[in-house]
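Researcher: Before we compare anything, I want clean individual predictions. No alignment, no superposition, just each chain on its own. First chain goes here; please echo the sequence and then give the C-alpha cells.
Model: Echoing the first chain and its structure:
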Amino acid sequence: MGSEARCTVRHGRTTAEAQVLLESTEVVVRGEIRLKIPFRTMTAVRARDGRLTIVWPEGTTVLELGPAAAIWAEKIRNPKRLIDKLGVKPDQRVSVTGIDDADFLGQLTERTQHASVGRITRGSAAIFLGVESVAGLERIARAAQAITRDGMIWVVWAKGRPALNEDHVRGAARRAGLVDVKVAAFSDTLSALKLVIPVERR
C-alpha cells in the first residue's frame, strides 16, 4: 500500500497535525499524536465528508484525509495479500532463505511451483533474503549474482532494532551495485526493502 499523508488527526481529546502512513497491516500516526492501529483490531472503519473514522480498542481516531478517506477505507477493508504486495507473479522462479513465516510461505507455494526454500537458485526472478545482523547483509551481493537482470531482491529484517535498520540495508545494497525502489511492511514485526539492478546496467 505505502500510502502517506499529512493531515489533522483527532484521537480522544487531542487534535494535532501528523504524518499518517497506510501500511499493509496497520495505520501509523507520527507526530504529537503517535499511534499504531493494526487492521485486525479495528471494529469499525467509516469514510464520510473527507474524514476517515477508525474505532478500535484504544478509542476513536479521526483522520482528515479529504478525497483520500474513501480510498484508504477501501484498502483497509480489503487489503492486498502479502504475495501480491511483494509482486510475485504466477509460476515465477523464487528463492527464499532466512525467512520462517508460515503465512508468507503458504501464499508463495500457492502462487508458484518454482519456489526454492532454504537456498538461493540462480535465475530467480525474486529472492527473499531474511537477515538478522549487519554482517548478514553481505549475502545481498551473492543474491545479486543469482537474480535475473530484471529480477528483485526483498531484504527482510526485524522492525525497531537500531542495530539493523533501513539505512544499513540501503548501504549494503549500494555496495552490491543495487538500488532500492520500495519499502514494505512484511508483517507486524518485519520490514522489507526491495532491491533491483539499476536500469542502465540491465
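Researcher: Okay. Second chain, same rules.
Model: Second chain and its structure:
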Amino acid sequence: MSLGAKGAASVHQPVLLEEMLAALAVRADGVYLDATFGAGGYSQAILAAGAGRVLAIDRDPDAVARGRALARSWPNFTIIEGCFGDAAELLAGHGADRLDGAVLDLGVSSPQLDDAARGFSFAREGPLDMRMSSRGVSAADVVNGADEATLADILYRYGEERASRRIARAIVDRRGSAPIRTTAELASLIAGVLGRGRDRIDPATRSFQALRIHVNDELGELERALAAMPSLLAPGGRLVVVAFHSLEDRLVKRFLGERSGRQARPSRHLPDPASQPPAQFRLLSGRAIQPGPAEVARNPRARSARLRAAERLPADPPEHEDTP
C-alpha cells in the first residue's frame, strides 16, 4: 500500500504516484477502483485528476473510517469495507460491475506499520497482532500455536527465510516456558538466532513479512483479485499494480504474462498449445517501473516498490457455431 509517515507533523507520501496516474489515464467519465485504500493517497489523487467516480475497498476498520471522512468531501467517492479479493461481489453491490481502471497497492500501509498497537513492525514494541481486519487469528496465535514444521514452512514460503527451521525451533523452545506476546520479544529471539548481518536489513524482516502474509492471506487475496479483473475491467480499462516484495511481484508478473499472451512455451521445439486462450491484456511496459533516486531519498520505504500496468483488450470473440 502507499507508504508514508504518520502523525500531525508528517506528510503522507504515496509511492510512484505520478507513474500510477500516467498508467491509469484517468477520464472524467470514468469509474475507478482503489482496491487497497490504506491511507487514501491514491484515491485522493485519482479524484483530483477528475475521475467521474471512485470506489475503494479496505478490510481495516481504521482505513474505512478515513475513507468515510474522505467521502464527506467527495460525493463521487465510495468506501467499501471488505477484502479486495472479493472485489467482484463487493462492487456488484454498489452498481459498479464495469471499471475504467483499477489500482492494487499491495502490502501493509503506513498507518498500520507506524501504529505500535497493530503489531506489524519489529521496530516498535507492541502486541504481536498483524491482523489487517483486526479479526481472526493473530500472529501471536500462529507463533504460539503452530507446530514447528508449520512455522518453518510459513517463514520459508512467505518470507524466503533460509534459516526458517532454526528460527522455528527457537520459537518452540522459547514458548515452552512462556508465550511470545510482543513484537519486541519475537524480534529479539530472531536476532539471537541469526545475529546481526553486515547489511542494514533487520534480521527479523523476513519472518515478520512471512507472518503478516500468512495471517492476512495476502497472496490468496491477490490471486483472487487478479482473477476478477478481466471481467471487471471494460475494454480499454487499465490495471495498475504496485508490489513491495518479490512474492507479490512474481505473482503479478506471471498473471499479466499469461493474460497478455506472453506465457513462455515449455520448449522452443514444441508448438504453442492448441488451447492457448486469446490475450486479455496489453502490457503498458515491458518491465516493472521502479522509483527513481529522488523518490527513494524522499521516502526510503519506496525503495522496493515495483509498478506493473496493462490495458484490457476488447472482449474475447465468441466461438463460431458450425452451420448445418
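Researcher: What stands out in the second chain?
Model: Confidence is low (pLDDT under 50) at residues 2-11, 265-271, 318-324. Additionally, The first strand starts at residue 31 and ends at 34.
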